Amino acid sequence: MAERIAVWLVILRSRIRSQTQYRTSFSLNLLSAGLSQGTELVAIVCLFAQVDALGGFDRSEVLTIYALSSTAFGICEFFGGSLNMLPTYIRTGTFDILMMRPLSVLGQLLTSEVQLHRAGRAVVGVLMLGYVVGATGVPMTGQNILLLLITPLAGALVIGAVWLVSSSMSFWLIKGEEVTVSVTYGTNLLTSYPMTVFSAPVRVVFSCIVPAAFVAYYPALALVDRPDPLGAPEYFAWSGPVVAGVSLAVAAGVWRWGIHQYKGVGS
Amino acid sequence: MTYMVDVEGLSREFSVWARTGRFRRSAKVVEAVADVSFTVARGEAVGYVGPNGSGKSTTIKMLTGILAPSSGRVSVCGLEPSQHRKQLARRIGIVFGQRSQLWWDLPLRESLEILRAIYRIPQARFRARLDECVELLDLDSFLERPVRQLSLGQRMRGEVTAALLHDPDLLVLDEPTIGLDLESKAKLRGFLAELVARRATTLLLTTHDLQDIELLCPRLIVIDHGRILADGALDTLRDEVSPERILRVDLKQPGALLPTFHGVTTVQADEHRTRQRLSFDPRRTTAAELIAQVAQVAPVIDVSVTEPAIEDVIRGLYARSGAVPAARHISRSSETTAGEEE
To answer: Which H helix or E strand runs over B26?
Structure first.
């Protein structure tokens, strides 16, 4: 077991070292990751200069949702960003190289492109979360602290599961990049805003089928101490880890099915 | 006797979507590999030859567990590849001429170090193996250079080293010399020949370059349209397909056209009739006999005997089967390229 972990550490270290070889490009990437996060934030602040509420939520409440979602997205992007590469790997034949090594293919995919600059987004998310929570005066009860800790982690796993499913689509589609990229950045958008801004059909899809609402919306409701205007039960705020577990199980199934499809077992 | 590779009735089909109308598409089943059977014994070096799209790469992918067969049985190193992918990976080495298993952004040495960790090769054995490859493949000058800066020839030498680090029982090479210059080809072939001779590593090689086969593989499997056309030693196939040899004689003085001696099928001469070519069937006469007969008719300066080139043997095989070698069958990679062009 220790030996097995050591293998992954060697791979991770090599990926990190390869980036630090290009220092300028690394710092530029870090800057751009932070900036893109910043512009989204500015957009929300500008929006609230014009309106008082978005879907019935005021500025600080929307920012709480946004900060939780950004942190989860940032963590997921840091650890699972290379899921995006799967369509390319399949098209160029690199996937065959992963298949010929005595290691888990998913593990190799996840470690194939660890990009440190992606940490920029997670860091900005955490800073934003700290600021918003302080500014809005969320009471620092033990319960709230626990919720603040588990929500981004569970959220990252939920988003990761969605990404895994979407990138697995490239086992069936010749050009999977579009699907993957739109899902990747689509989830970021969907998890960042209150559910009330979306129309009913969209809400159903993004709370029941793709559990985006569990990433930030429900936990944020509990933090700002508001009931869901749409009537979701209060325990939804704490359902993140369970939802993450179920999503990951489903995603793992789809992945395995995709590999079977790729190999052509029984098709 | 257990075989390194044991394949029986192996077939692989792909569904290909073809446009039949403006918006309509229909699925067509293409057989990339059809009922292929062969065995490879330990220590053998076998060339797997065929034109583009003949099913070579599909076969290789099934042998290495990347693709599962549609039907038939595969066993490599005693394992069923698609079921025991990881276990098998420890026992075989693969070199793809057209893709790299090295990390393009790291120095070659570091790529090899990562592979050492992946295959859990003990430090001492890794050292010994690496030193050997460094010496025989001249890696010294570029071992510390990032892979993306290597020339194709250097990179291929790195790939072969990478595939051999874990001491595989079977080395599979898919088009290893493609795109290499003559010197790099020669170096790689020399190394592989030595590997077979000294280490008794089993070698399975697909190639377009028939010289690879001539120099490395005593045995040849020829495939086309996913079916095996021939399987045997190069010499045997040569005798079977185009048994004719050519005796070239240079005469001292211009003279008449030489007679068609017993066993000779055609006689050709240049305009001065000093150099003449006699095609003969070695089963009916011998080169020595012919030379003696020629010498009785006219003074001879020089003689030489040529066998048909391996290209002619292969062409003969295709001609015999009525197949015209061309790209027809679709493998996974060409399928995706086709999709891209849409």
So the answer is: strand B25-40
Structural fold of domain B3-238: Rossmann fold (3.40.50)
Tell me the per-residue pLDDT of B59-103, one tens digit each, with 9 for 90 and over.
Answer: 999 999 999 999 999 999 999 998 999 999 999 999 998 889 999
Residue of B nearest to A105 (CA): B86
Domain count, chain A: 1
* A231 belongs to a structural domain: yes
Tell me if B294 sits within 8 A of B273, measured CB to CB: no
**Contact (CB<8Å) A14/B90:** no
Q: How far apart are CA A247 and CA A160, in angstroms?
A: 9
CA distance A69 to A20: 29
Least Cα separation, residue A112 to chain B (angstroms): 10
Positions of chain A with pLDDT lower than 50, given as ranges? 266-267
Contact check, Cβ <8 Å, B103/A264: no
Give the mutation candidate from B30, B114, B149, B166 for the A interface (greatest A CB count, under 10 A).
Answer: B114
**Minimal-distance CA residue of chain B relative to A262:** B67
Residues in B touching A17 (Cβ below 8 Å)? 106, 110
Which chain B residue has the Cα nearest residue A102? B86
CA B70 to CA B11: how far, in whole Å? 6
- Alpha carbon distance A80, A77 (integer Å): 5
Q: How many residues does chain B have?
A: 342
Domain span at A213: 2-6+26-261
Q: What are phi and psi of A235, to 5 degrees?
A: -65, -10
A130 domain-assigned: yes
Measured over the CA atoms of residue B304, residue B309, residue B315 and residue B317, the dihedral's sign is positive
- State the ipTM, two decimals: 0.79
B219 strand-pairing partners? B46, B233
